What does this fold into?
Amino acid sequence: MTARSFAHVLGLLVTTAAWRPSRGGARLHEIRMIGDATGYRFEPARLSIARGDSVVFRVVSGQPHTVAFDTTAITAGVAHALDARMSNRIGRLSGPLLLMAGDRYTISFDDLPSGRYPFFCLPHLGLRMTGEIVVQ
It folds into this structure.
């Protein structure tokens, strides 16, 4: 198996393992992860969701990318609950390295309190690839 095909299979496993259905009426939102000639960014960079909704982060270009939440901006109890909803972590509040265009990583905000959840892409933090999810 080549490194590229292994990375693709790993990406499929990450996508499958990260998905958790939310309760009835919950919505699935998408944030695209982009790196191109105009810069590295999440689109949208700010997303408002309802409690119980889920967010899928999808790699479009400029990979590798990660989804990591700002540990200094989230209280300890909330951080613990959010961390428990993140599969295949590479660290506290840090999702896996997404290697291929099309890779997805889904996080459920089911039973998490309302508030701000700032996040960033670890490989591109120096390029200000940051965002925020606001749970209503």
About this structure: The chain has one domain: 3-135. Confidence is low (pLDDT under 50) at residues 1-22.
